[in-house]
Amino acid sequence: MSEVNWGGSSLGGFIGLVLAAQPQSPIRRLVVNDIGPEVHRDALMSIAEYIGKSEEFPNLDEVEGYLRKIYPEFAPMTDADWAHTAKYSSRRTEHGTFRMKVDNKVGAAFRDSISYFNVDMWETWEQITCPVLVLRGTESSFLSKEIAEKMLTCGPQATLVEFENTGHTPTLRNDEQVDVIRNWLAEN
Q1: CA distance 121 to 67
Q2: 136 is in which domain, residue-wise?
């Protein structure tokens, strides 16, 4: 069986947690970006406001403005980063307008599933045996300092790196953030 290194931001991090916890998991090293085994309902509800919803925008500048509004915690982001994100997060419609590349059904399912609970995956966290790099924005609304520190005291061998003036999620679009991952993978 081949081994892989898995890196996931937010939902991709959840998927990585679940896969890494499986018996004989092919995940050799796991990087979770601003997500942990516990997320409070309030944080999930903030995503529910926009996930899977897509109105039409007359141009990419309007898409960019929308993304800046719904992702205020993304950092650091230059104007070029925002333009890049707008371009690759949207698609031109047959009418010449733009829509986000989202599946409305995913958003509806997400909203239905989070109505009643907080995410608690500490049992899953305890089953992970590979080394884990936990990335956290110091201003994150998803991964609190307390939960990140608890992740270091139980479960797998974990390393925590925090990025200043960054929320949910560190964008991994600059050398500082990418080098943290590159160096950790080289050492582990």
Answers
A1: 29
A2: 4-37+122-187
